[in-house]
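[agent] plan:
  1. take the single chain provided in the ticket
  2. run structure prediction with default settings
  3. attach structure tokens to the ticket
  4. add a short note for the reviewer (M.T.)
[agent] executing step 1
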Amino acid sequence: MNRIVQANATRHTATVVGGFHRLRAGWAAGLLVVLFGCGSTSGTQPRTADAEAPEGTEQAEASWPSLWTRRTEATPMAALPAEIAELAGACQSVDAGLMRVAERLAERLAGGEPPLQSDELMFELRAAGVPQTWPTVWALSGLPDERAGGAGVQSEVRARLPQWLASQPTLGQRLCGIAQRSAAGGELHVVAVTIDAVANLDPIERQVRQSQWVDVQARMLVPTEAGQVVVLGPRGAPFRVPTSLNADTLRARVNLDAPGMWLIQVLATVEGGPRPVLEATVFVDELPPPVFHSAPAPGEKSAGEASPMALPDGLTTMLNAARATEGLPALARNPQLDQLALHHAQAMLARQRVAHDVGEGDPVRRLQAAGIDAAMVGENVAVGANLVGAHRALWASPSHRGNMLHSRFSDVGIGIVQDAAGKVWVCELFASF
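[agent] step 2 finished; step 3 output follows
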């Protein structure tokens, strides 16, 4: 008897919007989506990435970690195996980096391992050279057609994957990676990783020397009103760099003046508000890590296991504990901001959309409509499998961490709701008066 198991066939995300702040005029923000799994890290050996050696490096070829590409760049696949080409018809483009991530996930399932957790998935995407954000994973497992009388997992995938892809909102270009692997018992596992790409990034070298300038050039695939490049270095708070927008192209230059890992994030204002659209990880005078290592975000251990009723207090505790690690004062919970944040979290859940504006205006307009006159306003929003995961995703994003560590914010409102699947929809609304 054939058995088909569908897993992660919908988006399970920690979506975070950050970097939104307004000083009585003008605002900017960003949005990041990461997928939440429920397992441990994998012992599967990574595949070797095909890429050219970066210019200006003296590292021996044998010392470069095989998991990492030499550049961050989107790379369309020129040719596909026949079984994958048949499934990829609903995609606008098959991306080489997403193919590597899909292969990695399919290998895990075939080996009996659980899915990747959110931070490990983002590690895999960055290592594979994928610059876009907002990944979504779909997986189907079961006996192959030949062992199920012609109605096995391949037939199910051919019927259901295009339907699922068609149901996903696509603002820009749908990128896909699709892989399948057989388990020892004969079960076949098919995995699709997709991203709604609203921008492309010109190639950025993975490894550079200290004090080297890095040119960031992003080409938008959808209309945008504004853009900003935010950088997070090995130490300290994130910072913004001067960014120009000419027609559909965002440009900036970043000086990487300290050794270690740097994260470059491109924000753009698109439909629904500002959000992160591209990211690149660059290593200064060191090699990328050969394997993933999970690291807790500051403050996440301070909240403990919060009950649903205590979720806002738990997130406030983590937020203020994270600020304390940077020598910043605690934010005061503001009942008026709490009410607005809760209403926005409920609105996002109702519309199944994470954004600054889901129909009632951006944070500034929402405060003004409530009669609240703030000198400065900021907002992070998220949806995640749990509160700690949402906090960790917020902390990992430069634009969102910028709000969490902004020295001028004095008050915060926390709104959290849980959906039927147990995911938490979060709004952190910051202000100063």
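[agent] step 4 note for reviewer: Confidence is low (pLDDT under 50) at residues 1-60.
[agent] ticket updated
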